[in-house]
Design brief:
The complex is a heterodimer of chains A (380) and B (630). Chain A is mainly alpha-helical and 380 residues long. Chain A is built from 17 helices and three strands. Chain A has a three-stranded antiparallel β-sheet with strand order 1-2-3. In chain A, helix 4 packs antiparallel against helix 5 and helix 5 runs parallel beside helix 16. Chain B has a domain of 270 residues: Beta-lactamase (3-Layer(aba) Sandwich), CATH 3.40.710. The chains are: A mainly alpha (380), B alpha+beta (630).
Chain lengths: 380, 630
């Protein structure tokens, strides 16, 4: 039961709530989301221990990142959505500037240039953009009459297209896909007309061959491998064959934690990062997968409820976009590991080992919580 | 847009809710797609993927059996197995093969040839995750250098394996052969399963002939491996059956003594125990170190061996074709007296030559002014050629061909020397077939003194001598004494295996008149122990009775009326020195042939060597320790 229902059914509790704010309204956090995220992170650490070849070091480093993520989440939850919105245009400009800087001065590995190196640390501006873009588009549209006019749709598409193209140039197909979808979700949720949607789908379909032409060789190879992994079983098809073998051999109940032969004997590549769902499937079976998917579904459901309850379009669009982008992570990652989608570098959120994505994701949840927390204030 | 519409907050909220519900529906259906996919992989296709994962994890690895050891007649180890360290590359773990090779070559010396051979082996690789050797016989320094650099050389390993080692090296190479790395053609021939872990196979000699016995049975182990092929644990194991140990008739002490006696010469000695046919010593000089061939000889070393004028790679003892010269005289004489062409008392006058027709071509005796009156015994003991010319003229080629053939000339008679050659026993048919010419009387004359078309190997000479020693009883010359088996009570036995030799056992030589054996052996005795015997110096002072025959084989034709002068001739045109003998006469224990290429006279060069070998065998003396005055 959420607090609005609570208020509706128990009006006499109003005074009590107003005078003695609950722990949740005091901390600006959402209890449901917090519990679900803690469960998800615990599940992630549990699987990571096995996926990393029982290396406690990985688990500890990941736990530290998660702690940092929770900290960022709590900080962001304290800021008002309006405050974030005010900064959106500036953040967007800075973000684009950083992305250009990446292309000019960035560092990286394996043919991709994704990082900006500053003295002492390095970071991925594309991660910042994951939050800034939906923020900007939501801010832009929320102050226009909805559903957006064709002009505003167009401006939004430009806002989305710019960072997407810059990130694709790095190249980082996975992140550009996530960023593009975060912006497009804002548009879709804003009530953009169905005929725009259908015509866009039509145009996109027609543009596919053009996309093929601009893709890098390794990206094309991934698509080809996706279409027929057996064509190169020892080369680029290896990953997907091994992950499918890991998943399939897990069966309903799994081979048991730490007992997955595919993952423990290194047949499964990237088992602790992008392909960690295969470890879940192999060791914990279909049951483990269903538990994980249930966690994701609950988080998404809660996020959508928060979005729907937001008092203004800005909060609604922002929260809705962030939570749907979260789902894109889940779908693309599991889809690619199970052989439904081509391999693009998208981690399984809060389970895959590594990097900045954990902090970005938690920051997103911080914003969602902020939207939830400041709902009552704005209502007043 | 001309005018901004006003924001309708409640409508926007409604729209959003509809879109959010739609989005949730899409999320749920896409999650269902994932669940269906997982269900398909994990339930519907579970069996298939479970099998694939098991195939990934479990490998059936063959385990090579240890090769059987080879012992001499006294139990001295002649061939054993020693650990050898080689550096190998597992291709699956290497990203950039050329770079890894280059890095490795920075650490230890690897020649271009070795790289080429490595790449060839890589192409022939039989299983995936099978490491391929780059260089063999690493020394400790090299092992250490590679080990400390392991971390930057993924896929590179130092591996130990047991490889054949021949402690006596060159001494036994022509007697035993050697093993070498198995090649593609050999892989086609052998049982692929049994050789699945074996990298070496007998290439020559005993090692080749008794390959089946020496190799053993491959073992298998089921192992769990990781993706890089590293064995994590052994799940099941069937031990390999080591190859059988074999014992040869060979006497390593005698072999070593013989080798030293022939030092610096191109020569060959074969000694046989006439009772068993067991080969006591088989030396062909010069030889080479078989250990070089086990893991692959460097091309520089190989070229040096191949191009040497002394032909060290050539096994003279069993393949060398020499005109046997006068050493066949006991047999051609036997042919004459046993067929009744002449009696042993048949006497001629030898002026130093023989002519078929008055004033015709002179067939010369080795002794310029002749032996005077000689009978058969003197003709053999003094090696008078003219007596044989005369008798050969009388008897023609057929009895000689027949008798020589019965003593093994012209065919391979050995049991287990796969490379032995039969060489040439001439006859009328042979000449018609091979030379498209008819047989001339002059050919018979040459044949009677072991010249002309007759060509034989030292092994054949020793074998024929053993048959004489046995008075016609045939024994197939052989290396193997038996396979060592251990009885239940721990006692060791020797067992003769079934061998599939193409050589059928020979028929014993049965003479028309048994006493002719005595006649012939007496004349051979007189070669050694009479005052005029050609090898009397080598027979002097012997504590046992020797029957022998010297021979001197012409290498280049001497023109009519030209004299042979060793001093004038280049060394390689000098005569071959030959000698055959057996001893003791009343109880023959050793039959021997000695061939010294371009050694000059049989009596001066070959016979003393044979005497020392016989002394060493029969008396246990060491001619180099206690010089026997001859």
């Amino acid at each position: 039961m959420n607090s609005r229902e609570f208020e509706r059914y128990m009006p006499e509790a109003h005074d009590h709530l107003r005078t003695r704010p609950s722990l949740w309204s005091y901390t600006h956090l959402d209890g449901w989301l917090l519990i679900l995220l803690i469960l998800l992170c615990s599940f992630g650490l549990f699987v990571l221990y096995s996926a990393s070849g029982q290396d406690l070091g990985y688990v500890i480093r990941q736990a530290i990142r998660m702690a940092a993520g929770f900290f960022v989440m709590i900080v962001l939850a304290q800021l008002t959505p309006r405050f974030l919105g005010r900064w959106a245009p500036w953040l967007y400009v800075i973000g684009i500037g950083l992305l250009v800087a990446v292309i000019l001065f960035g560092v990286g590995a394996k043919g991709a240039q994704r990082w900006l190196a500053l003295p002492g640390f390095r970071f991925q501006p594309s991660e910042i953009m994951k939050l800034v873009l939906p923020l900007t588009v939501a801010f832009f549209l929320a102050h226009r009459p909805l559903p957006p006019s064709i002009k505003h749709v167009f401006i939004s598409l430009v806002l989305i297209g710019l960072p997407t193209v810059l990130i694709m140039k790095q190249p980082d197909l996975g992140t550009s896909l996530l960023i593009a979808s975060s912006g497009i979700f804002v548009l879709l949720l804003s009530g953009i007309r169905w005929r725009y949607i259908f015509s866009a789908v039509g145009v996109a379909g027609a543009a596919l061959p053009g996309l093929w032409a601009v893709m890098k060789d390794y990206q094309k190879q991934r698509v080809l491998t996706f279409l027929d992994p057996e064509s190169d079983p020892l080369g680029s098809g290896w990953n997907i064959i091994q992950s499918k073998t890991a998943i399939g051999s897990g069966g309903v109940y799994g081979k048991g934690w730490l007992s997955g032969t595919q993952s423990q004997l290194d047949f499964l590549p990237e088992s602790h990062t992008d392909f960690i769902i295969a470890v879940v499937a192999e060791e914990l079976g279909l049951i483990g997968v269903l538990i994980l998917l249930s966690l994701y579904l609950l988080i998404i459901a809660r996020g959508l409820v928060i979005a729907a309850q937001a008092p203004d379009s800005f909060g609604r669009l922002l929260a809705g976009s962030l939570i749907l982008t979260f789902f894109v992570y889940v779908f693309v990652n599991i889809g690619m590991v199970s052989g439904l989608l081509p391999v693009v570098g998208v981690p399984l959120p809060l389970v895959s080992y590594g990097g900045t994505s954990i902090v970005t994701l938690m920051a997103g949840f911080g914003i969602i919580m902020s939207i939830h927390s400041y709902r009552t204030m704005l209502l007043k | 847009m001309a005018t901004e519409r006003l924001k309708d907050h409640s409508k926007e909220s409604r729209t959003f809710k509809i879109r959010a519900i739609l989005a949730f529906a899409v999320v749920v259906s896409l999650l269902l797609v994932l669940i269906v996919r997982m269900f398909y992989l994990q339930v519907v296709e579970h069996e298939r993927f479970a099998a694939m994962s098991e195939d990934n994890r479990v490998q059936l690895q063959p385990v090579p059996p240890n090769r059987g050891l080879i012992y001499d007649r006294n139990g001295v180890l002649l061939a054993d197995n020693r650990p050898s360290y080689s550096v190998t590359i597992l291709k699956e773990e290497v990203k950039d093969l050329d770079k890894t090779l280059a890095d490795l070559r920075d650490l230890i010396p690897i020649t271009d040839k070795e790289v080429l051979r490595f790449k060839k082996r890589l192409r022939q690789r039989r299983r995936s995750f099978e490491s391929v050797p780059v260089r063999f016989r690493l020394n400790e320094q090299e092992i250490a250098t590679i080990s400390v650099n392991y971390h930057r050389l993924p896929g590179v390993r130092v591996e130990a394996e047991l490889i054949r080692h021949y402690p006596y090296g060159e001494t036994l190479v022509h007697a035993m052969g050697y093993v070498g790395r198995i090649n593609e053609a050999e892989l086609q021939r052998v049982d692929e399963r049994n050789y699945s872990a074996t990298h070496y196979i007998g290439k020559l000699g005993i090692e080749k002939f008794y390959e089946d016995q020496l190799h053993g049975e491959v073992g298998f182990q089921k192992v769990e491996t990781n993706a890089r092929g590293r064995v994590m644990r052994v799940l099941e194991r069937t031990d390999p059956q080591p190859g059988k140990d074999i014992q040869l008739h060979l006497d390593i002490r005698l072999q070593q003594i013989t080798e030293r006696l022939l030092e610096g010469r191109r020569a060959s000695v074969v000694a046989i125990d006439p009772k068993t046919g067991g080969i006591l010593t088989l030396v062909s000089k010069p030889g080479y170190d078989p250990n070089l061939f086990v893991t692959g000889i460097s091309s520089k070393d190989y070229e040096a061996l191949r191009d040497s004028r002394d032909l060290p790679l050539f096994n003279r003892a069993i393949r060398g074709g020499y005109p046997p010269g006068s050493t066949v005289k006991p047999i051609t004489a036997l042919a004459a007296i046993d067929t009744g062409v002449v009696s042993p008392g048949y006497t001629i006058f030898d002026p130093g030559w023989y002519t078929l027709t008055k004033g015709g071509r002179k067939y010369r005796d080795w002794k310029k002014f002749g032996h005077g009156r000689v009978n058969m015994n003197e003709a053999i003991s003094q090696s008078c050629d003219t007596w044989f010319y005369d008798v050969a003229h009388k008897m023609g080629v057929d009895p000689m061909s027949d008798y020589l053939g019965r003593f093994g000339f012209g065919s391979v008679t050995s049991l287990d020397l796969p490379e032995a050659l039969g060489q040439i026993l001439p006859s009328k048919e042979w000449k018609k077939r091979r030379r498209k010419e008819s047989w001339y009387t002059g050919d018979s004359l040459n044949l009677s003194i072991g010249q002309g078309f007759l060509v034989s190997t030292p092994l054949q000479l020793a074998t024929a001598t053993a048959v004489i020693a046995n008075r016609g009883k045939w024994v197939q010359p052989r290396m193997l004494q038996g396979i060592k088996t251990e009885a239940e009570d721990g006692s060791q036995n020797l067992e003769m295996p079934e061998v599939t030799s193409v050589q059928l056992p020979r028929q014993d030589v049965v003479l028309n008149q048994e006493k002719n054996w005595d006649v012939i052996i007496k004349s051979m005795h007189d070669v050694m122990h009479s005052e005029t015997g050609t090898a009397r110096l080598s027979g002097a002072g012997a504590q046992y009775k020797i029957a022998g025959k010297t021979g001197t084989a012409q290498v280049v034709g001497i023109k009519q009326d030209e004299e042979y002068d060793a001093e004038k001739l280049a060394e390689i045109h000098r005569d071959h020195a030959l000698f055959v003998a057996f001893a003791p006469i009343d109880d023959p224990q050793i039959a021997i042939s000695v061939v010294v290429e371009n050694g000059g006279g049989g009596s001066s060069t070959a016979a003393p060597i044979a005497r020392k070998i016989m002394d060493a065998y029969l008396l246990g003396t060491d001619p180099l320790l206690d010089e026997i005055e001859l």
